[in-house]
Structures
1.
Amino acid sequence: MQLTAQEIAALLGGKVDGDPAAAVSSFARIENGKPGQLCFYANPKYESYVYTSKASVLLVNDDFKPSGAVSATLVRVPDAYAALARLMNWTAARGRTSRAHRGRCRIAWSARLGKKVWVGDYVVIGARCRIGDRTRIMGNVTIGEGTTIGSDCIIYPGVQIFPGMVIGDRVILHAGCIIGDDGFGNAKQPDGSWQKIEHLGNVIIGNDVEIGSNTTVDRAPMESTIIEDGVRIDNLCQIAHGVVVGKNTAMASQCGIAGSARIGEGSILAGQVGVNGHISIAPGTVVGGKSAVIGNVRKPGTTIYGNPAIDHATYLRAYALFKKAAEEN
Amino acid sequence: MQLTAQEIAALLGGKVDGDPAAAVSSFARIENGKPGQLCFYANPKYESYVYTSKASVLLVNDDFKPSGAVSATLVRVPDAYAALARLMNWTAARGRTSRAHRGRCRIAWSARLGKKVWVGDYVVIGARCRIGDRTRIMGNVTIGEGTTIGSDCIIYPGVQIFPGMVIGDRVILHAGCIIGDDGFGNAKQPDGSWQKIEHLGNVIIGNDVEIGSNTTVDRAPMESTIIEDGVRIDNLCQIAHGVVVGKNTAMASQCGIAGSARIGEGSILAGQVGVNGHISIAPGTVVGGKSAVIGNVRKPGTTIYGNPAIDHATYLRAYALFKKAAEEN
Amino acid sequence: MQLTAQEIAALLGGKVDGDPAAAVSSFARIENGKPGQLCFYANPKYESYVYTSKASVLLVNDDFKPSGAVSATLVRVPDAYAALARLMNWTAARGRTSRAHRGRCRIAWSARLGKKVWVGDYVVIGARCRIGDRTRIMGNVTIGEGTTIGSDCIIYPGVQIFPGMVIGDRVILHAGCIIGDDGFGNAKQPDGSWQKIEHLGNVIIGNDVEIGSNTTVDRAPMESTIIEDGVRIDNLCQIAHGVVVGKNTAMASQCGIAGSARIGEGSILAGQVGVNGHISIAPGTVVGGKSAVIGNVRKPGTTIYGNPAIDHATYLRAYALFKKAAEEN
């Protein structure tokens, strides 16, 4: 990629303030910018770097008034951070192929692949699968029989998808994630051993969902584990059998959601949160890092923290007293 | 699968109460049951659904007396939940192949496979491996040389098994789990760097064990990491070098057991528990979610909770006081 | 392997005290040693086993004076534990091949492999990759285009490496780890949905690094996620986009480091620790198990614990008071 300030302004609907021919070929943070790089400035905390940056182009907000000399060419846009994101997405999209491809792979005769589907090496696609247009499936992926995957999806290397799953459009399954393995269902027997409960259900993933690397999503014993539209799940999370993750919920790394829990729409779970089985979390709940949610959260928009999780401010105040007691003794 | 109430009753040793020809082809929860589906009812909390359910067949306990009109055909059994589990297991078993199969795979000449072993695509089986009868190995699995796997096992896609491991009968290794990688052994050097400690031992897994998706079980430096008979380990757990997990212990998702810890028989660890290295946990210990066990647990059958873990009731009482102090200040 | 006490003493620069022809072929812990095995003794806690051990050879410290009869041949060395580690490393190294090998794999024409590179089955190596001498790549690994890997590395089965990564010499990537997947970057939109932030950066891994099984290391949005020389990361850890892990830092299993955090050189993180995004941890920080570090740690060499993490001794004292309050009420 090589873009001039002029081209960038045109792409982003911005205005050039400086040399329109200033050219960049990569991105950097403002504190590290070098000639040939584009940086952005939005947070006033970093203003001093605007005047020392060696970057060739600087994306800034419309209303930014420099208080000193700036060597970079400015491209002014209404929202510099959003504009940067758009430019990065545009760059990433340009780097993507959109053509049919078959590596050394094993595709069942009865599987039906859409237009421009890209299939990497050592991929297995089972009988009666349906794969939508322009979906790309990277190396060493296994897709079980009867699974349906929508259009414009990306299935990264090492993903394993079980039979009978249903996956929407524009879904990204990151490397090594597992979709649809058995839930952890065991009935204790009188002799102390465990009887396995078989899982005959599946996983249904909506549109515009991302599931992180090495995350595991178990299928339901009957019916479905459901990941609704727009959900973002980070790496190494566990979504157990029969869970419902509501629309647009975001979950940071290493969260664990136990069986049949329901997470309301638009919730945000910080890293390493645990949620007990069979409970319901109201829409818009925010859960602090490492908290354990052990009961229903009934009021929408609550922020909670702790093990077990309680009101966020209460937890922090209690913790301050807990610490103070030790310091005074 | 299509089964009539009569056939179900025969399979489960139950009695039909209603139309013996009522037919079902899938399972559902009682609140969602539709015509052609089988539901079960055991928990009185859900009784109202018995009268509104559209399911064709309802598994109920022998002694259930409806207090209103029921449209479903009832199949009465001594224990409805256990009967459901048996019926699901029977259904799952019917869907399984039991025949020899070789995909596009790489099996060393000196490996010895039993009868009706199923090997999927892109599987590597190393020299001198022994695989028991009817074991099924799914796609993209690697099995290192000299490893022994028993009969009637299922090795799901993406599992990686290192050389020299010993795995019993009827073991299920879920997708992406890693058996026998190096333990995390490092000796600090005077210059601050770490000297790697090589691991020459292995992992021994007993009979009737399940290891969850993307779980990692490290091999011992010398001797063996041991997972005893009947153990159930959920997804994304870490079992470090030299650990012994006692018979029939169950461990929920994302637990981490540090090096050389010993977990007593029949223990139950809730999700995200951590256990320190070199400690012993008595048989029948129950550890609450997200707890950290940092010392020996000597008394069998104790329930503990917290970081560090203490008596469960004490933790909850202490936590209530912790919260109350903040609310009063 | 079959070694006599004499040969062992020669290898380790030690002295034989007993039968120089005593031979061993495997290692065991002192409490379990059998004829034909080598054990070591360093910790006085285990002295009684010296007199009951059936092992053929016992590695001991130079200055050890037995207080009873010992049946094993002793090999005396300045530091028995370090000598054992050296002997195990020597044994492990002997078992390794160092020769060129190509399994059934897919190597792009433009990839350049060094001398004696070993490539297993079902491996994909993308265009323009560079792989250094004697590096071994096990089965079912995918390496994206333009990635550079140094010499004498081991890439275990099921590892997935994204395009454009830079990996040093003598690096070990354990089974199933993911290097360079997208970071978790999402910008909230007015309608509650998330706009994906593309990640155009990479991951740079120094020399002598180990990354554990099923650990995930995300690439930076721009610039690089950096793992410096000598770092040791255990299994199932999450290293987010733009993180810097300082030289010789060791991180136990299931830690999660959020985006753009910086971990100072020589730090030690116990298992299941969480570190917030955008914070800095001073060199030599020690973080207790399951702690959450939510702010900068400015003083080098501090030991911290808790959620949120505070001074280690303060936390333990506060926790004792927390517990006592419950016991007294």
2.
Amino acid sequence: MAIVVQKYGGSSVANADKIRNVARRIAEAHKKGNKVVAVVSALGDTTDDLIGLAKQINANPEPREMDLLLSTGEIVSSTLMAMALHAMGFKAVALSGPQAGISTDSSFSRARILGIEPKRIIKEIDKGNIVIVAGFQGMTAEMDVTTLGRGGSDTTAVALAASLKAGICEIYTDVEGVYTADPRIVEEARKLEDIGYEEMLEMATSGAKVVHHRAVELGEVYNMPILVASSFVDTPGTIIHGGKNMEARNKVRGIAHDLDVAKITVTGVPDRPGIAAAIFQPLAKAGISVDTIVQNASANNITDLTFTVSRNDLSKAMSIVKPVAKEIGAKECLSDSKLGKVSIIGTGMQNTPGYAAKMFQTLFEQGINIQLITTSEIRITCIISEDKIKEAVKALHKAFALEQSKAGS
Amino acid sequence: MAIVVQKYGGSSVANADKIRNVARRIAEAHKKGNKVVAVVSALGDTTDDLIGLAKQINANPEPREMDLLLSTGEIVSSTLMAMALHAMGFKAVALSGPQAGISTDSSFSRARILGIEPKRIIKEIDKGNIVIVAGFQGMTAEMDVTTLGRGGSDTTAVALAASLKAGICEIYTDVEGVYTADPRIVEEARKLEDIGYEEMLEMATSGAKVVHHRAVELGEVYNMPILVASSFVDTPGTIIHGGKNMEARNKVRGIAHDLDVAKITVTGVPDRPGIAAAIFQPLAKAGISVDTIVQNASANNITDLTFTVSRNDLSKAMSIVKPVAKEIGAKECLSDSKLGKVSIIGTGMQNTPGYAAKMFQTLFEQGINIQLITTSEIRITCIISEDKIKEAVKALHKAFALEQSKAGS
């Protein structure tokens, strides 16, 4: 009997009927002869509701207490899921993250899994139980409860699959798989049968929020195949894996986009060593993630420095950067919050000329102005005006013929 | 610096304002130089809400999963309380029952505390933290989360006070102390300055639901004084203790009553060994608590057996007793759910004649028919019609002159 690890997100367990629906799916996998371990997120909006409750009491709650508070959401859903399985006549047991043996560091609100001791899970499987694990949480060596940050239940599932040597980690969600582009924007968008870890990582960090990128990273480290599929309908999903055929593919696999982009430009920056550190260290200390960074070629030892942050962080970032800019003798700080990014993603693109040119030509033909460009080995990203994003995604999908399964090259 | 353990019930922490109010009270005790450990119950109706949620999924949930589910209620309130203290500028830390080192047996939903390892609590106190402990919960040796049953937070508080060698355990609630009778019924009811453990136990099990009886028992075992006082107003409460003067008191201390009484009578029972076991063993197995049991003197080897259960258990108890009654050749099973009990309580009553006679005479003068009588060393209880309870409590309070502080003898 193989061990199968499944994960169900918050929208899949939002109420009693949906919990019963998921319980039936878990039971199906069990009836097929698998040893099933299912990870669940908190019910629907529970996490946001708990955050709201905390903010009524303290505008800036301590992360340690916040994590202990938020961990209750997944405990509630895991116990209800076990109860639903009992009601259907199956043996099941609910385990909190600590009970499941998930050890983390003590970075509250974004803890990293240090290891899993699956003794208890194996004991319960051996007793014939379906094991339901509360996602998103673990415990430090000091017995403090931690959470893994948003999307943490995906990470829990992949880490459990790796430590239990499962054949596959199945992530069930409210979409049917990974698409060549957002189907709400591109009608012809096609569901991919499979995708490589690196490609999926670029898709995830470029705006395709299907699986959390930490889960994909972990999948890659342990070479654990991840199935992404719908928890509502029975259609084949997308398998994220690291097959050998990946390397040779050399084609665009998908278009990702993200509307959560704000840009800060510091103009008239003296071009001398230490300037970048002076600007980015205080941002890092304030916990602000900087995405793209571009520095224009210097003339007369004066340069312009541009970088992007998420929109939520813009005002905080500006309040940090402005005094620094003054101190280092820069000219001014400009910001623009109405931006988006669009990316083409595919293994081997960098080694094959023509992708970037085709992308820029396509955007030009639509009359879309490119503000910033960044590239990785398998991704080219353009930052453009927010109101042009849909148009750009559609045009690029068509230009690379992604509606055809053998296309994209 | 003395360690003070405080406990706040669910109605004292029902919303953000009330949580802040309790946080101020905890902070006051801390500012007086005490090392404060505060135990909190779940917010308002949380426990009932979680039970409702579970019943939507499974009419008969597994106790293990139910306990894990219910334990989240007190974790939420303990974290919010710590956050409220942080917002007021105090150092505080929230601990779940397991983190606080509370070990229990594995009788889910009514677990008994086996021991407390207060290492973590002491470490946090030494760091200058106010420690907030989630009440009502603990952990088995297998790391399963348990709950202590209704009123369990009182038990948590007294057990913590004992293990930390606190000077006193303060239980703050929505009443101002222990009264000579329910003040909603008897206008002249007087708040007692102090009361003995045994007397309080009889009060608690006879319907005065101020402190849970298990907490009082534990207080007696460890000789831990328990203060019962209001969490809303600053008036002196009642101290439950075991002073030497208790023994010699010889007077009625209070009148307790309980409306949750149902009676089952099995008539025409053959009076032979094993009959009582045949009836009460299946009830015990079904988890039904039987309160009073009375068997009338036997004539012709035929007897009537009467016992009381709580009203909730009546229909289940009848369905168990009826077939047994038939099997053992009894005549019939009768039930009455419209009963109540009224008790007079005081140390040393049994050694002093006249209390029982005065009680029966008082009820007779009110035209109240007594259906059953039971006594303990320090209590006399009469079971009477539900609609006569108020009248009986008022008349007995007056007859024993409980409105006068030196009276009752």
3.
Amino acid sequence: MRKLIVVLCLLMLPGVAFGATVSKETQSCLNCHRGFTPGIVADWENSLHSKTLPDEAIEKPKAGRRISAETVPDRFKHVVVGCYECHGQHTDKHKDNFTHFGFSINVVVSPNDCNTCHPTEVAQYTPSKKAQAVGNLLKNPVYHTLVDTIIGPQEVDGTTITHQQPSDYTKQDACFACHGTTIEVLGMKERKTPLGTIQVPDLKNWPNQGVGRINPDGTKGACTSCHPRHSFSIEIARKPETCGQCHLEPDVPAYNVYKASKHGNIYEVDKDHWDFKAVPWRIGTDFTAPTCAVCHVSELAAPDGGILVERSHDFASRLWVRLFGLIYTHPQPKNGDTSIIKNADGLPLPTTFTGKPASEYLIGPDEQAVRKNRMTTVCKQCHSTSWVDAHFAKMDNTIKETDHMTLQATKLLQYAWDHGLAKGIPQGANPFDEAIEQKWIKQWLFYGNTARYASAMTGAQDYVAFKYGWWGLTTNLEKMREEIEMKEAIKKLEESSADKTEQGSAE
Amino acid sequence: MRKLIVVLCLLMLPGVAFGATVSKETQSCLNCHRGFTPGIVADWENSLHSKTLPDEAIEKPKAGRRISAETVPDRFKHVVVGCYECHGQHTDKHKDNFTHFGFSINVVVSPNDCNTCHPTEVAQYTPSKKAQAVGNLLKNPVYHTLVDTIIGPQEVDGTTITHQQPSDYTKQDACFACHGTTIEVLGMKERKTPLGTIQVPDLKNWPNQGVGRINPDGTKGACTSCHPRHSFSIEIARKPETCGQCHLEPDVPAYNVYKASKHGNIYEVDKDHWDFKAVPWRIGTDFTAPTCAVCHVSELAAPDGGILVERSHDFASRLWVRLFGLIYTHPQPKNGDTSIIKNADGLPLPTTFTGKPASEYLIGPDEQAVRKNRMTTVCKQCHSTSWVDAHFAKMDNTIKETDHMTLQATKLLQYAWDHGLAKGIPQGANPFDEAIEQKWIKQWLFYGNTARYASAMTGAQDYVAFKYGWWGLTTNLEKMREEIEMKEAIKKLEESSADKTEQGSAE
Amino acid sequence: MRKLIVVLCLLMLPGVAFGATVSKETQSCLNCHRGFTPGIVADWENSLHSKTLPDEAIEKPKAGRRISAETVPDRFKHVVVGCYECHGQHTDKHKDNFTHFGFSINVVVSPNDCNTCHPTEVAQYTPSKKAQAVGNLLKNPVYHTLVDTIIGPQEVDGTTITHQQPSDYTKQDACFACHGTTIEVLGMKERKTPLGTIQVPDLKNWPNQGVGRINPDGTKGACTSCHPRHSFSIEIARKPETCGQCHLEPDVPAYNVYKASKHGNIYEVDKDHWDFKAVPWRIGTDFTAPTCAVCHVSELAAPDGGILVERSHDFASRLWVRLFGLIYTHPQPKNGDTSIIKNADGLPLPTTFTGKPASEYLIGPDEQAVRKNRMTTVCKQCHSTSWVDAHFAKMDNTIKETDHMTLQATKLLQYAWDHGLAKGIPQGANPFDEAIEQKWIKQWLFYGNTARYASAMTGAQDYVAFKYGWWGLTTNLEKMREEIEMKEAIKKLEESSADKTEQGSAE
């Protein structure tokens, strides 16, 4: 079969034509790639893109439209959205552009390319925290130090551990697999193929589908994080397993908590009866319990089709408080670029070490009320106002108490630093590289976050109680205390022993 | 649309009639709530309740009946089971009763309300451990202390940690989310609605669907734990994800263990071909591997429909040994109210600290044999007697050995208490608040339980071996030993140092 | 109904005949077992075995054949594959053979029995690591010591812990549940049945479906590990939950990592639209993302049916490097029997303590290239060559760095041994039974393995970063260092105190 493909490709004959509305460039792509990468072609053939003419899609009623552009350039209007329509756009802006069997092609499709048909989504996404996820980690020296401490290889000499800079590969494999990498074009490289030696771009930090990926055209984000290539399925994006790739225990256990909640329980046992492709998405008719997308992203409608909540690809648009402690919870930041935040101590953090919020950079009560109202509108389609109010009152209390437990851990850490039992901020040393410091990280990053996420998605009680939640908060505090106690006792004994030795010498 | 609902509601016009057999009260509920809480109405419309006339349901053959009443009051006979039929019962007994647009309504539907149609299930459930789950935790001073120690906020001062009482909200969020809360009616509160200001009951410890919830009518239990509102689906109750909300790692990892077992494996890959709604439920025809409900609750039939095992909503009716160590395994308690148990040392525990069972309160060998026979009857539909016998012989050995490992940990803890390395029962101090005590808790609550649950559902070998099982039992013991050794060494050094200082002073 | 079965069985009447092509022996089995073990009969009735005549199956085109024999003995040709066809073979070789109501029956069906129809699969499987899984654990004194240390019951006396030999039951329940047990026939035992007292074999270490089970006919392996009785479904074997029974966190978290990866995400949300029974299995048509079987076992075809990759039941045939560290990664062993391996220090391990591979026993670069090419052929059906190359370059780096992190932990352990802080290899003591040694085990067995598995199945970033991955590698190293530091400080104080006491005595 390979031989046939080669002949077909070399002759640039039409091959198996997909349909009358496929552009001739895309048809050329399909001719070869149907043989070389059949999985990609099959995914695309199963997608809406392969069946949709933009000029017809635009004519649909607004509530059911998947295309948000009011018009598209002429060349896209009457052909389905094929290989070349996406990979052949804005070629002058793409450093990853190259000539591939006569076609000018970009390796990476960026949000700016998707923007041709989906400008509303791109406009909502681009300023959001997700799109800024690389800079929010790298431009913040505190977070950057944490990254380097944890994923950098270490060198042991005797009982001394020296931390080295993490490699680009490990960054790509760990933190930046979710946050996104900065894709760099190093040049061109040769590759031998059945069609002869070809030249392809040599990309660094690729492949990557992190939410804040910095693309070779300078744009930020990867729509494929949630709408994976090449089916771009709304069903996949709406199912919680997609979110679960990044939002996992122990640091951001939203997906684990969801699965253990009543909502997750109903999703899991009832989902086969739901319609994950319907737009608009009707409560009680198309689905009977929320998924991540229902609460945070999707356009929702009543059973009669009337729109109840608007879609937004700014994932914070229905969030008023940031449950993710850094190190304490705080109102959502005003700007998706959180690297600009400075707390009262001048550190790039949304709160001080004792919990004072950097309010100037965070949304105020009015905006909080607007966003909370968006979320509770979703809740109230299935729950009474009393129920919803009581739920969030409980969550507010859990926020307060878990932040309190972080403060207590911080007091113990400060005691260790102050009494020479560890070296951190007061000593100008790395605050993340010693055992007691790493226990402290667990207090807010694993245990506090878990209890709060589980409270927010009520029903995941084991995550509040025993799995990373209160059991962790309480026993971790006691572990920190005991470590301090033992180290302090040893230190005093050493000092006393040194005194006596000195006295002995002096005598 | 909201405006239309308001007009419709105010005029109390019939609106979209659901069907001729809906009571006129329920029709009034639907008129408004179809607009205000469409998710609830849709769930109910998808339910059997919305399609079932009790007097017709009672006529069905016994094996296939879902209603266990032999007769129901006249007013329920000829209408489907709608909003008012459930929320409008026994209004004089409900402290949460209120007048809502002219109707006398209870917020919470209790087992006593479900009892009208489902008396057998309520009679089985009410005396069981599940229905007593609140008192079993709160009335037992030992367990109560454990709860308070783990989920109460703490205060750090220097290196001293002071434990405070947990808040009602955190209790509701953690332990009592599963066990159930005591719902209290604080009074009435005002709520602004599109239909004007209304009065609704102000409930404390609500919402909650814990299995032992104490309801405003004084009854115990929440049928909605497993049959969630408002679909009350038998399919949901029969699927293990429902049980998995509470029976999760690390303390009662039945669901995690099930998923990793061969039975769970077959369920997960084959369930789409099963019929989860069939009553009776036929082995091999309707399902091909057990779920939690198959082994513990459901009425099971042969492929030809002959009943093999009777349904019971007393979840211990097929259980002879309690794998859940407190701190050791023991025969199932005679009474669902376990707070009455006293061991030989006078403590409210089913065994002593060294493992002697409080036999007076526990079922004897004859009743154990009866219950074991019920369970093995299920097993033997797919496994030979030799297979089943060997399986439970293996489990018995795992019970014996894990209890032995708990005893070893208890000996180490006792050593620490006896040698002044921790303060617990001998000192009249909290036995749960120090690091070594918390390691001891893990021995029986996390590691022993996990190994036993995994042994009981054979095939979940990683839970026996590495995930919370034997790896935990063994390495935790060594951690306890090392902690004792280091603390003892420091103590001796301190004593020796104090001696020398005294000697020095004395000289 | 039971009574009817008894009568039917005693009379040996035909009962409910299954079909004209059932052998008369199998029909006799069905007559009784349809009543006694209806689940088994139903599973078989749903299976292909109950519908397949070997002589017809053999005639199918090669790519779609499930039977690999070119011919079968006459007595199997014209009857479906029923009870007696499998349990009645090679009776002279089976120590578990017995006479059961007049029929000569084996309890256990072994690979040699399956070999009649599936010789290619048995020939591939038998020499593989999986089939040798019992000996690979038991014949290796290092691994054997680890097993004994972790799952043997322990005895505490004061602060001394004594390790005892694990029981056969616990071995069967833990490690050997996956690896397989050695089934022994102890003799015959009596069993009372409704048909009178019968004699059945008394088997030790049974039931068991471990991959390397040693059967009563001397053969190795249990096909039922992945093709569970009595449906023997290809759908079950192809779904990852089956592999997940053994390949679970924390030691070999392949299944957990898969679920968190993009491939696992797509499987989970899209699998209902796939055809898990199609042979050959067409990429993009029958499935749209890989499962474990796709990458490691199955025959794969292009959408047009052309075979791309051959099936192999040697699960290492597409693997060139062994990610599972013992204690470091290494090329796959040449021989499935790894107990023959000796490293440069004479230990039965594939690498030395400092990482030097025992190359003589491991595949070389040429064979590695062949196997890697098989795997990348799978990848390239959906990914470009550049993508695939970059993916494996990243994995290679993660292998290198995690092995480096294991080496650092090994250096710390060696320091502890050398400075009298723990007793291990230099002292001729158990290297697995002390707290610091058990931390060292976690470094390579839990953390290193997890980071590598997650890197290999890109997209499971939380397992690389926080869940058992780098967070574990880094913080565990720091815990080891701190433990050494504290123990060393205490040791010095004790020595100094002893010196002074001596001096005091001397004075």
